[in-house]
Amino acid sequence: MKNDGAQDAKKQRKKMSPLRFLLNMIFSFLLALIAIYVVLTMISLVQRQKTYEHIPPGYSAYLCVPSASSLAQQVIHLDAASSLLVGSDYMEIAGLLRSLRVQGTLDSFFVRRLGDVRLDAAVYADGGFVAAVDMGLRSGLLPAVKLFATQILPGMEIGSQIRFHDDGFPHYQVQAGDSVLYLAIHRNLVLLASSRQLLQAAVAGDFRSVVVRPPKKDSMLRVLIPSDVISVTENSGSRGAESGFLQQLVSALVIEDSLIVDLLPDNEHVYLHATAALSSSDELLHTLLTRSSETPAVLSRLPESVEYFSLLHIAQVESLWDTFEPYLGSAADAKRTADRAARMALGGSIDDLIFSWIGDEVGVFGTSFGPSPVFFVRIADEQRRRQVFETIFASLLAGQDVSAVVNGRRIPRIVFPSFITGFLQALEIQLSEPFYLESDGILYASNSAEVLAAAVEQINNNDLMVRTRRWDRLMNNISGQSSAMMYYDVNRSLPFFLRSNAAIGQALGLYDVGALSLRIDDEILSLDFSAMRSGTREVADLPGFPLQAESRFDSSPYS
Predict the structure, then answer these.
(1) Residue from 337, 359, 358 nearest 349 by CA
(2) What are the angstrom distances between the C-alpha of 30 and each of 13, 25, 37, 156, 320?
(3) Binning pLDDT at 50, 70 and 90, where does residue 179 land?
(4) 400 near 417, Cβ under 8 Å?
(5) pLDDT tens, position by position, 503-532
């Protein structure tokens, strides 16, 4: 019986066709390749190295990208990137972006999956750079890549562009146009550098002093800037008015570690989150940094017609002034002048007349009702406010007007003495004879009775900004807890950070509505910036226009 079975098996092998035999061989070969790949991948994962452990220290900026293919896709299809690349210096890069956008190569499933790897990179003061790519499950392919680059590629026509060296450590020298790049494969990592020295340092690795965690899953990019690179202490000894309040204030702050910035842009919305640990040798400023931000009450008492606002919610105004006074320059001088005049005319200083009854929330907003802004303060002591107003009204240097009536409501008006007006003007508050109304513990003041009445009417009817769909979309990623907040619409108001840098202004100008929030939590400062396209902007600027004419036109440019 046994002989019969052996003879049957032998007959079956003889009957097997050459095609089937070939298919079995191919299948067995593929199984062997898969088994080898799985084994190599498991080995590389067991010996897995962290990307940040192979980035040499001393960098000027560190970049962490959770997905290289996602970053490439977002940049290629980002309108703001095209705006930043306007000009002859960026023509080649802009052309490359347009080509990739049209070809759609990076949109293919295979390229997206292959490039879905973590990428860490660093740039240095001398212009050098290092990049580390974690190949993850793809690391099982790296031995085959090594074999190809070392044994097969040199014999090919393009092999002259890539040279293998093993002088101290195995690496590849890649000629890319006029530039030379250095590449090495180390376990699950692919390392790239601008010089052999940087690559050798990266391969040696084991830089465990800094742990760089990837940003949130939906973030495109994380950037770390070391504290010693940020010159926040520059001109710290100069506190003159000519340096500006913000520059003077920043000069008194010290970033303890690194500034960390997370960025997530697309064509409809851009979101940025930054954090830094701060300290200061200024005792009052240090006390301010140890506070924890809370949600401003005024935020829920702004009308839905608001087109821009600025809000401070850090501390009582009197305490806030004591903290910021050394950095205010001419405004501090104006207050001292106003103090002397107020004591002579009204028997009290500016602290007694204004700061004593104002709480910890102050700001200004503009509405669609008219150009006049509305200033607001939270009232901490209503009884004290009434006493101060009665004192001012009783003075020959000031007065009250109650003749204005809007929609059947009488709007009172206060006429400030010149020394109070001068102090307010030094703070860029233009309120010489403002109308004012009080609602829910908040005092609103404006030079226009009509704008003021319409805004307060919306507030009293609960037609509020925080209930609008625009606000909900914009603040989706931003906490309501804030020490300072700004909201803007570029059709009505342009914030300082868009005016100070032409390139940033041009790119962010594509997003017409934005908000910025600063939050403090025990010496940790967090900044959140969110901007979006509202869909209401009918006219948009073309990148690169308007063009500067070389001389005067001899005829109409429209003819």
Answers:
(1) 337
(2) 22, 9, 10, 26, 73
(3) confident
(4) no
(5) 677 777 788 899 999 999 988 999 999 999
Burial class (CB in 10 A: 0-12, 13-18, 19+), 425: middle
State the SS3 of 344-396. Answer: HHHCCCHHHHCHHHEEEEEEEEEECCEEEEEEEEEECCHHHHHHHHHHHHHCC
Query: What does the radius of gyration of the chain's CA atoms come to, in whole angstroms?
Result: 33
Higher pLDDT, 244 or 394: 394
Instruction: Say which residues have a Cβ less than 8 Å from residue 305's Cβ, sequence separation at least 6.
Output: 367, 368, 369, 454, 455, 458, 463
Q: Which residues pair with 443 in a beta bridge?
A: 377, 438
Tokens at 345, concatenated: 């005319």
Q: What is the pLDDT of residue 140?
A: 63
Q: At 406, is the secondary structure helix, strand, or coil?
A: strand
How many CB atoms neighbour CB 271 within 10 A?
Answer: 22
3-state secondary structure of 198: helix
Mind listing the pLDDT tens digit for each residue in 212-223?
A: 777 665 567 899
Contact 352, 384 (CB under 8 A): no
d(CA 491, CA 503): 18
Q: Which residues contact 113 (CB under 8 A, 6 or more apart)?
A: 69
Least confident stretch, 163-167, 173-177, 217-221, 460-464 = 217-221
Give the C-alpha separation, 307 to 446, whole Å.
Answer: 16
pTM exceeding the 0.85 threshold for the entire prediction: no
Cα dihedral across residues 70, 73, 78, 84: positive or negative: positive
Of 235, 173, 171, give the one whose Cα is nearest residue 203: 171
Say if residue 36's pLDDT is above 70: no
Q: How far apart are CA 117 and CA 67, in angstroms?
A: 5
pLDDT digits 0-9 by tens, 105-147: 677 777 787 788 899 999 999 999 999 998 877 776 666 666 6
Of residues 244 and 537, the one with the higher pLDDT is 244
